[in-house]
Amino acid sequence: MFDSKEIITVTMILFAVIDVIGSIPVLIDLRSKIGFIQAGKASFASLAIMLVFLFVGEKILGLIGLDISSFAIAGSFVLFFIAIEMILGITLYKDSVPATASIVPIAFPLIAGAGTLTTLLSLKAEYHDSNIIVAICLNMLVVYLVLKNTKYLETILGPGGINIVRKVFGVILLAIAVKLFRTNAGM
Question: What is the number of structural domains in the chain?
Fold first, then answer.
């Protein structure tokens, strides 16, 4: 049931969508406003949100008469626009940053936001749940490490490095969006 190729693929997809490296500027801003980010709580809350949505999200869709393929196609459009934002450096959707940071602004919507939740259900149409769970856990480990070390990463990457990483993952995400659309549209 566990497939290392699937785990690597899903891990990379989620890494690109979560975009914790691209979120470093927002995290730095939050840290400067409140002084401290609770990395463990934010990571655990993100993990819980994603796992619950992975299993309950499909049932919710069923209640409103949608199937996974339709949701995956819709998700491919969301991923497409997220990729465009990453590649072109434009903002199509912007959340306001609250005055105080807690689990809410970091875990949701920054880490486990709409793009991530849409992606999870889209991935469910193509990959085994066990591989998705492992990929979620691996990503939450990376998220935890980034949250714990934002000050250090800011120094190492610098603005140029963060921008390069964001654009590379944007192109990868764009290709993933196209693949999801083709697979679920029967092309």
Answer: 1
**Residue 100: band (very low, low, confident or very high) from pLDDT cuts 50, 70, 90:** very low
Tokens of 127: 């990959």
b/e 102-112 (16+ beta carbons within 10 angstroms → b): ebebbbbbbbb
Range of the domain at 53: 4-184
Give the model confidence (pLDDT) of 47-69 as tens digits: 999 999 999 988 888 899 988 78
Residue 98 DSSP symbol: P
The CA–CA distances, whole Å, from 173 to 76, 79, 91, 101, 159 equal: 10, 7, 16, 28, 21
**pTM to 2 decimals?**
0.78
Cα–Cα distance for residue pair 21/153, rounded to 1 Å: 9
Residue 95 pLDDT class (50, 70, 90 cuts): low
